[in-house]
């Protein structure tokens, strides 16, 4: 019988699920992701996580609780660092320990350390450890690892081409490869800046991306930009940021701020997010100083009401429309995203060179 | 060049001593107060942690006094402190406050980066003099910590209420007024005499460890003088972080032996928290374990609202075999709420201790 490994649909699921899933599948495990976020997942997470913890981690607790009875073990790697000299956030460093100490009756946890802080190169030790926990031999683990990296590379390329994570995951893992939403090529663009687990979880942000599409806009995120572009943009900062996700967000915001096709920027953060409190300030100050771009700062928490969010979104869209700069027909036929062919290297950690 | 720096408890005494010894003009900002906090809250990002807001307030108040250069420490994450200086500088610049910013960062490529900054601040002084200055600052930190430990021990046992605090303030003045390293031994003797003169009455006390984030631990304005309040409730406190230990761990790389070190605490944190989480998260868990082993009656964790490393630690503390109380500090913290919670916690600890004693007697018989 195949061993069932559960992966919560939370936190960096949106970046690394194809890598983890295909690795585990190649080793002969059956991978079970948790269901998309719903009310019961959220409320179970809220009950069991500490009050001060940020919403995404509470949500991850809920996903783990929903998964626990269905699987033989949980895959919760400790994401210390996915790029050289950068961390993600303290909560990711302590996440497996928080889970273990706060929740009882969990199945065994596979918690290999993913740490590229020093070398920025190889993920191999982490995967070897994870594979060992599944009682596989070195040779098979290596093969599964190489093939999983290939899958992740295809996935990253799709994201860079403007696919949303759920669509791209279905394409690379399920083979259903119909390119979604080709029609929005000439639509005005709105940049959505935020952590992947806030902008891609449509329950928690109340369908923000579909709503923007329905309003006739094309949402773009940091993931549609090449890593080189993001690095170039953040090089104006007085000091390099040491949070990977926040660095990407700042880079994307600075890039879209000067892109003539972008008609507005939405910054999404979760209540009490530490890194966002700093980088949000950097982004907002820069946008205000230049004074041209409509900007909406949305803070999500478990009490966010739909009506309040809609009112603010409508006001923002009115502002975008009134400024007029937007709804020009797109100039020329070229694709909005310039770096279509470049691979999103941050999502393939082994490809990230030292900086 | 008029140098200023942010407040953190009694740190100003050490920094002032060091910088004045090197012949610099120093502007010590007024002690953190309600006004400092209001200034900081007004201009800092809403969800920034409390230390950033107070730092900003300190800088704004120092600017009113004519300071033009800020001396700050840096860091390389994942705690937000590593980016404080840059955010504060951006805010000050938008407010029209022209500060020269000198951030002492852990060097990324070469030790020369750090040395160049020290040279910029210290100017014509020789390296030998700079080292002497640092040593002078450190000696003061040691003396202050010794004072604080004595006060922690005396407060719950003092015969006349308030006598410890009076002695402590007097001794603090003695340390603060020393101008040269040569004056330190004599000052130490004076302060010891002062502290020994406090009359004590032997009585049973509770022992409580205070753990958490360094700024909230060291700054009495932020923790609302929690050590004094606990002392008055008959509790002998020990703090998991003292300034001199921090200096030894982080600036001298643990070179000085015979001091409590963070390594011990980090080792004790396993298997509960197996990896550092930035800030003092792992130390908080580890110190709590150590306090439990040492037979303390309880532990109080202090953190500023939204502090990431301490939140991780907070979710682990309930698993450790010792009663804990977590107090989150922010600009809304009220005095009455704190007192009520402290009294309730101390009552619980007393009952628990009495219960344990009874059980122990029953088992013994």
Describe the protein.
Chain A is α/β, with parallel strands linked by helices and 355 residues long. Helices cover 45% and strands 12% of the residues of chain A. In chain A, helix 7 (138-160) packs across helix 8 (165-174) and helix 11 (227-234) packs across helix 12 (244-258). In chain A, 50% of the residues are buried. Chain B is built from 15 helices and 8 strands. Chain B has helices at 11-21, 34-43, 50-64, 84-94, 111-122, 127-154, 163-176, 184-196, 214-218, 226-232, 243-250, 262-269, 281-293, 308-314, 335-364, and strands spanning 2-4, 25-26, 69-73, 100-104, 206-212, 235-239, 298-304, 324-329. Chain B has a 4-stranded parallel β-sheet with strand order 2-1-3-4, with helices on one face. In chain B, helix 4 (84-94) links the parallel strand 3 (69-73) and strand 4. In chain B, helix 2 (34-43) packs across helix 3 (50-64) and helix 13 (281-293) packs parallel to helix 14. The longest helix of chain B has 30 residues, at 335-364. At the A-B interface, helix 4, helix 5 and helix 13 of A face helix 4 and helix 14 of B.
Oligomer classification: heterodimer
Would you report the number of β strands of chain B? 8
Rg from Cα of chain B: 21 Å
**Low-pLDDT segments, ≥5 res of chain B:** none
List SSEs of chain B in N-to-C order: EHEHHEHEHHHHEHHEHHHEHEH
How many helices of chain A in DSSP terms? Answer: 14
Order of helices and strands of chain A: EHEHHEEHHEEHHHEHHEHHEHEH
Give the termini separation of chain B: 73 Å
């Amino acid at each position: 019988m195949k061993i069932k490994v559960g992966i919560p649909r939370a936190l960096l699921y949106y970046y690394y699920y194809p890598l983890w899933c295909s690795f585990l599948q190649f080793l002969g495990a059956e991978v079970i992701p948790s269901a998309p976020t719903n009310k019961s997942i959220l409320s179970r997470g809220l009950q069991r996580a500490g009050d001060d913890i940020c919403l995404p981690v509470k949500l991850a607790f809920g996903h783990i609780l929903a998964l626990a009875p269905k699987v033989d073990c949980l895959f919760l790697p400790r994401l210390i660092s996915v790029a050289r000299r950068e961390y993600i956030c303290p909560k990711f460093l302590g996440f497996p320990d928080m889970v273990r100490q706060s929740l009882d009756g969990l199945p065994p946890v596979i918690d290999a350390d993913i740490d590229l802080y020093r070398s920025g190169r190889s993920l191999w030790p982490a995967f070897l450890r994870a594979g060992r926990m599944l009682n596989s031999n070195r040779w098979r683990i290596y093969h599964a690892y190489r093939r999983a990296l290939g899958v992740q590379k295809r996935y990253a390329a799709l994201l860079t081409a403007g696919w949303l994570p759920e669509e791209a995951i279905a394409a690379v893992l399920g083979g259903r490869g119909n390119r979604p939403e080709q029609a929005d090529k000439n639509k005005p663009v709105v940049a959505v800046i935020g952590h992947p687990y806030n902008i891609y979880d449509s329950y928690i942000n109340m369908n923000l991306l579909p709503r923007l599409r329905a309003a006739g806009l094309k949402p773009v995120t940091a993931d549609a930009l090449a890593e080189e572009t993001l690095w170039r943009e953040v090089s104006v900062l007085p000091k390099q940021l040491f949070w990977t996700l926040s660095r990407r967000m700042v880079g994307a915001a600075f890039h879209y701020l000067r892109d003539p096709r972008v008609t507005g920027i939405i910054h999404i953060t979760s209540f009490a997010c530490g890194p966002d409190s700093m980088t949000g300030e950097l982004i907002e100050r820069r946008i205000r100083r230049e004074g041209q771009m409509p900007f909406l700062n949305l803070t999500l928490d478990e009490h966010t009401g739909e009506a309040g969010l809609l009112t603010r979104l409508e006001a923002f869209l009115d502002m975008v429309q009134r400024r007029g700069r937007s709804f020009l027909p797109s100039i020329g036929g070229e694709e909005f995203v310039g770096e279509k062919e470049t691979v999103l290297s941050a999502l393939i950690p082994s490809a990230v060179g030292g900086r | 060049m008029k140098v200023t720096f942010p407040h953190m408890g009694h740190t100003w005494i050490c920094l002032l001593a060091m910088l004045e010894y090197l012949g610099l003009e120093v502007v010590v900002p007024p002690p953190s107060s309600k006004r400092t906090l209001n200034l900081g809250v007004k201009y800092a990002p809403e969800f920034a942690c409390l230390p950033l807001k107070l730092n900003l307030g300190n800088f704004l108040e120092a600017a009113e006094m004519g300071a033009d250069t800020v001396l700050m420490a840096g860091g390389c994450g994942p705690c937000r402190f590593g980016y404080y200086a840059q955010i504060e500088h951006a805010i000050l610049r938008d407010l029209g406050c022209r500060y020269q910013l000198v951030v002492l960062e852990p060097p990324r490529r070469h030790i020369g980066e750090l040395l160049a900054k020290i040279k910029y601040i210290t100017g014509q002084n020789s390296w030998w003099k700079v080292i002497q200055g640092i040593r002078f600052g450190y000696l003061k930190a040691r003396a202050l910590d010794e004072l604080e430990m004595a006060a922690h021990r005396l407060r719950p046992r003092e015969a006349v209420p308030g006598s410890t605090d009076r002695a402590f303030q007097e001794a603090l003045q003695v340390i603060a007024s020393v101008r040269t390293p040569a004056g330190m031994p004599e000052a130490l003797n004076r302060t010891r005499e002062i502290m020994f003169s406090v009359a004590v009455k032997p009585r049973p006390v509770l022992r409580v460890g205070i753990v958490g984030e360094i700024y909230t631990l060291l700054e009495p304005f932020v923790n609302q003088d929690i050590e004094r309040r606990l002392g008055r409730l008959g509790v002998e406190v020990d703090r998991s972080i003292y300034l001199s230990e921090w200096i030894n761990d982080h600036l001298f790389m643990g070179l000085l032996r015979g001091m409590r070190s963070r390594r011990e605490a980090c080792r004790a944190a396993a298997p509960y928290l197996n990896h550092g989480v930035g800030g003092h998260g792992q130390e908080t868990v580890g110190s709590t374990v150590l306090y439990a082993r040492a037979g303390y009656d309880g532990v109080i964790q202090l953190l500023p609202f939204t502090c990431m490393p301490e939140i991780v630690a907070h979710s682990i503390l309930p698993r450790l075999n010792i009663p804990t109380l977590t107090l989150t500090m922010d600009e809304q913290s009220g005095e009455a709420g704190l007192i009520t919670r402290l009294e309730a916690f101390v009552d619980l600890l007393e009952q628990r201790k009495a219960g344990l004693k009874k059980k122990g007697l029953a088992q013994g018989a």
